[in-house]
Design goal:
Blueprint (H helix, E strand, L loop, with lengths): L1 E3 L5 E3 L5 E2 L4 H11 L8 H9 L7 H13 L4 E4 L2 E4 L7 H10 L3 H5 L16 H22 L4 H10 L4 H13 L3 H19 L5 H11 L23 H13 L2 E5 L6 H11 L1 H4 L3 E5 L9 H8 L8 H16 L4 E6 L5 H14 L3 E7 L8 E5 L16 H13 L10 H10 L4 H9 L6 H6 L4 H4 L14 H9 L4 H9 L7 E2 H7 L5 H9 L4 E5 L2 E5 L2 H14 L2 H19 L8 H24 L3 H18 L2 H12 L6 H14 L8 H13 L2 H4 L3 H11 L3 H12 L4 H17 L3 H18 L2 H17 L3 H18 L2 H18 L2 H18 L2 H17 L3 H16 L7 H17 L2 H17 L3 H17 L3 H15 L7 H10 L9 H12 L5
Parallel strand pairs: 6-9, 6-10, 7-8, 8-9
Antiparallel strand pairs: 1-2, 2-3, 4-5, 11-13, 12-13
């Protein structure tokens, strides 16, 4: 809990939530106790401070009543010494202000003020004296800030006008005016102050103010030219706003700050910008020493002296000692900032030099740049990594890497723009060059002679491509290769060995993988590579991961190739990930599912690289094992496109084991079942092959895959056979999968009670084994069927549970689908505002990730939601957009026609265009009946009943409702249109016909021929 008195009295909880204090007297009590936080205040003191000379008749009870009210919001305890407020001094802004002011952190201290101190309790007897003291402290702090910072005439003038008798403030204003060359204005301020002091106080100005006056008369306070000893800034400074703030804060708190990062990260440019913005630069007290050209440790002091325009002659053996004396003498003349740039190749000498300087010169601050820390006492490190890069987001302009590339691109090609023709290429350039400033600048320079697309296409040959640096730059900054080689040449033999072998890990690795693949007992060598900015550390929960920037990894891969070690290292790499996926794959269907997903997410790029390499090298056993080890994870995460691609490529290899071949064929057929239904005979053959080869006993996922493949290929007998087989499995997850598949079969047959029971069993079984994915999928199915009973709210609650599980699994595609269903369900319930919120959330995800498939689904959901809210024209426009975008997606296939027909039919009904609605429904009846999708056919039949009702043919509408109930087993009473039709027509009479006959009659009514 925090208490604020520097303004109106307020209280905030730990999370920042404001707390309502209550009446004025309670505020007074809180403020008084907060001035002695953590210490008891006697009751008599509190009574005097709250009521003064006019206490109430029963003051003790009145105080107790106030304390009782205050206790409802603050911890107040009665102790032998009085009442104590249980907060620490750090939790009261008055005391934080005092501490920050004493530490010289004036901006932070003054930032705590929100108005006059104790502004709302000044009527209390104790408050005026305290407020006066605090206001005086605030004024003094503001004066200190003006004294230590840059002259600000406007701010000083405004403050002086409010406090015309403060001599120190008048002196500061006079100095600031003189610094701007306004000597006469400064002298006029002195005359005004002297007159006021005489008239109002009867005193003369202080000696300090008279000294300022004399200095102004002599012209000693006039503006002076300030030496700029920093490198010339020829380009604009882009990005790094957070780093600028962080480094400035570190320099205020520490006397030695080192910017550490890989070559090309822009450390020198950043250090130069920090130094240029530092207050000492305006006073001519900043020096910049470039050490890149220094080759020997004994020449280091001479290089710094060169930056000072000083020379030391005489005995070379004495130059270093004498040089240090001269440097210390110059820097010790006042507050100073010294930039030591590029220390990595002289790290020991640079560390000793900086250490000695900060010890000898108390007012010195050192800002160093290096690829590894100086590692001396008092050093504060500021890691400088790549600029922020877009990772799939649609809007990329705000990312630092993009801003830098665009700035440099426009310098060489005026008019270059970020639009739909360039955005994707710019995104790729920034991402594949790791957001490294030098690499981006070299790439932008290529726009003189190339298009941005040509640059993107040649990034695989980046060391040849990026060679167009400034001719005046240091040699090691003119090409990308030279930048990396500068760092590479500083490594020891053991570091070189590990660094080149690390190139096999495109996704980084943990220590166990590195020691298994690259080098036993690698930790100390690895940490040395981290120190030298060859390797980055990425925290992964408690286990650190180590990775190389892509440019360094590409160079390391060249060195690995040249070493002759590549074949063996790659072999160990692929075997390692084969074993890793074998170990973790079963856990993706267990209570350790989230842990397994975390492992797969961290190792995704490595597993894909191992699998891609095994496929390309025709290593059949490895390819099959790796795909089998990662396939189910891809399905859980919704990475279907990648899964289908590798299924196709691995199945093309010769020599796959029969059980693996059969399993992958089954999975490929199943994934192709939407949008194209599998051939019945082909599906049956694949199912039988899985049984014959024993795959069903090795691959639990077949417990779902085979029954569903049989079901989708319109082979219900085979589907039931495979459900029964899976139900007898020793694997509890397979038994859950059997019930999950059984619910589809039963629902299609119209046995809704049996389907619901099967789903309930599946849900409980998935929960028992800890499989969140199975639970979420089952919840979605349950929600859809609960909705049909008319209980929209219960369906929404189930979808909400499914969404929570999808988010927990980080399965973003599933999360979008859950939001899609939620939006539609809210719309069916009539809560259109909630429906639009869910659509907006789904749109935000697909916009940030650029997921085209999910964007098609969201477009359809949005049209549905808009239509149900009565905005027919907007729904028509959205339907057109859906048709256009979905037509380019192979993912939906023939479903585009069906979904569009259903949506357009509903729009046509709302418009009164009943002939058009009837034609659209006929299309949907044909497609749903041809693929024997009974639930979907029932929904279309209900839609046809709505058309007949609108045409005034209620007798036909009633018969169609009866047929819809035969086909599905019940009507969709969660749909307000169907519910409304039933309310008008009454419950339909039972249709004593078979489902086959019901289907025939619906087709006949829709005018769909059997040809």
């Amino acid at each position: 809990m925090r208490v604020a008195l520097l303004g109106p009295t307020t209280v905030a909880a730990e999370d920042g939530t404001p707390v309502d204090i209550g009446g004025a007297r309670v505020r007074m009590l809180l403020a008084r106790l907060a001035l002695d936080p953590g210490r008891p205040v006697p009751a008599t003191t509190l009574i005097d401070d709250l009521w003064g000379e006019r206490p109430p008749a029963d003051a003790v009870n009145a105080l107790q009543s106030l304390v009782s009210r205050l206790r409802k919001i603050c911890p107040v305890a009665l102790e032998p010494g009085g009442y104590r407020l249980g907060v620490a001094t750090e939790d009261v802004d008055v005391f934080r202000f005092d501490r920050l002011r004493a530490a010289g952190r004036l901006d932070e201290a003054l930032g705590l003020w929100r108005g006059e101190a104790l502004a709302d309790v000044r009527e209390a007897p104790f408050a005026q004296v305290v407020a006066t003291r605090l206001d005086e402290a605030r004024l003094a702090a503001e004066e200190d800030r003006f004294r230590n910072g840059e002259p600000d005439v406007a701010a000083l003038t405004a403050m002086y006008e409010r406090h015309p008798l403060r001599e120190r403030l008048a002196g500061l204003l006079m100095r600031a005016l003189c610094a701007q060359g306004r000597q006469s204005d400064a002298l006029r301020v002195y005359a005004e102050v002297r007159a006021r002091l005489a008239d109002e106080l009867g005193v003369d100005p202080s000696q300090e103010l008279r000294d300022v006056h004399l200095a102004a008369l002599r012209g000693e306070l006039g503006p002076r030219p300030v030496a700029d000893r920093l490198p010339v800034r020829l380009t604009s400074f882009v990005g790094r706003d957070d780093e600028l703030t962080a480094i400035s804060r570190l320099l205020a708190e520490s006397r030695l700050v080192t910017l550490v990062g890989p070559g090309g990260a822009g450390k020198t440019r950043l250090a130069t910008e920090v130094a240029a913005r530092h207050p000492l630069h305006g006073r001519g007290r900043v020096w910049f020493a470039a050490l890149a050209g220094v080759r020997a440790a004994e020449d280091l002091a001479g290089a710094v002296l060169g930056a000072f325009d000083l020379r030391v002659g005489g005995d070379p053996m004495r130059r270093t000692a004498e040089g240090m004396d001269r440097i210390a003498e110059v820097l010790g003349a006042g507050e100073s900032l010294l930039v030591l740039d590029n220390c990595e190749h002289l790290i020991g000498a640079a560390a000793g030099f900086a250490d000695e300087l900060v010890r000898r010169v108390p007012q010195l601050r050192v800002l160093a740049t290096s690829r590894e820390p100086l590692a001396i006492d008092g050093e504060s490190l500021c890691p400088i990594g790549p600029l922020a890069v877009p990772n799939g987001q649609a809007g990329v302009e705000a990312f630092g890497a993009v801003r830098l590339f665009l700035d440099r691109a426009r310098a060489v090609r005026p008019g270059f723009r970020l639009d739909e023709t360039t955005a994707e290429d710019v995104r790729q350039i920034c991402r594949r060059l790791d957001g490294m400033p030098l690499a981006l600048e070299l790439a932008a320079a290529r726009l003189r002679s190339m298009t941005v697309r040509q640059i993107t296409q040649r990034l695989d040959d980046r060391f040849r491509l990026l060679t167009s640096g400034s001719r005046t730059a240091l040699p090691r900054q003119r090409t990308l290769r030279a930048v990396v080689e500068w760092s590479w040449d500083l490594l020891t033999e053991e570091e070189l060995l590990l660094a080149r072998r690390l190139a096999v890990f495109p996704g980084g690795a943990d220590l166990a993988a590195i020691e298994e693949v690259c080098l036993p007992d690698a930790l100390y060598v690895l940490t040395s590579l981290v120190d030298k900015s060859i390797v980055d550390v990425v925290e992964q929960d408690a286990e650190p991961r180590y990775r190389m920037l892509e440019t360094i990894r590409v160079y390391a891969a060249e060195r690995l190739e040249a070493s002759g070690e590549k074949h063996e290292v790659v072999r160990r790499f692929r075997r390692y990930y084969l074993e890793l996926t074998r170990r973790w794959e079963p856990l993706t269907r267990s209570a350790r599912q989230l842990e397994a997903i975390g492992v797969y997410e961290a190792e995704q790029d490595n597993v894909v690289a191992a699998l891609r390499g095994a496929v390309d090298d025709q290593e059949v056993e490895l390819a099959g094992g790796l795909l089998g080890g990662v396939f189910w994870y891809w399905l859980v995460k919704g990475d279907n496109e990648r899964a289908e691609t590798f299924l196709r490529e691995v199945l093309a290899l010769d020599g796959l084991p029969d059980d693996v071949n059969a399993t992958f064929r089954a999975m490929r057929l199943l994934m192709a079942a939407v949008p194209a239904l599998p051939d019945t005979a082909e599906a049956a053959q694949v199912v039988d092959d899985c049984v014959r080869t024993g795959a069903t006993g090795k691959w639990p996922s077949l417990a779902i895959a085979l029954p569903m493949l049989a079901f989708l290929s319109q082979n219900p007998d085979l589907a039931r056979r495979e459900v029964a087989r899976a139900a007898r499995s020793e694997d509890p997850w397979a038994r859950a999968g059997a019930n999950w598949a059984l619910s589809f079969v039963l629902a299609d047959e119209g046995d809704l009670d049996g389907a619901e029971a099967a789903r309930d069993r599946a849900y409980e079984q998935f929960l028992a084994v800890g499989d969140r994915w199975g639970s979420a999928m089952t919840l979605g199915m349950k929600a859809a069927f609960v909705s049909q009973t008319g209980d929209n709210q219960a369906a929404i609650e189930l979808y909400r549970k499914g969404l929570a599980v999808a988010l927990e699994l980080r399965s973003w595609d599933d999360a979008v689908q859950q939001r899609w269903h939620l939006a539609v369900e809210y719309a069916r319930m009539g809560d259109h505002a909630a429906a639009e919120r869910e659509v907006a959330e789904a749109e935000r995800y697909v916009r940030e990730t650029g997921n085209d498939q999910m964007s098609v689904l969201v477009d359809y959901a949005k049209a549905d939601v808009v239509l149900r809210s009565g905005r027919v024209a907007q729904a028509r426009d959205l339907s057109t957009r859906f048709r256009e975008t979905a037509a380019t997606s192979a993912w939906l296939g023939s479903f585009v026609t069906e979904w569009t027909a259903v949506l357009d039919a509903r729009i046509a009904i709302a418009d009164g265009r009943l002939g058009e609605a009837e034609a659209c429904v006929a299309v949907a009846v044909r497609t749903t009946s041809e693929r024997s999708d009974m639930p979907d056919l029932s929904a279309v039949t209900e839609l046809l009943a709505l058309v007949r009702h609108a045409q005034g043919r209620d007798d036909v509408a009633a018969r169609l409702l009866a047929l819809a109930r035969v086909i599905r087993g019940r009507l969709d009473l969660g749909d307000p249109d169907v519910r409304g039709l039933v309310a008008v027509l009454g419950e339909p009479e039972p249709a004593e016909v078979s489902r086959t006959e019901a289907l025939r009659r619906v087709r006949e009514e829709a005018g769909v021929s059997d040809d």
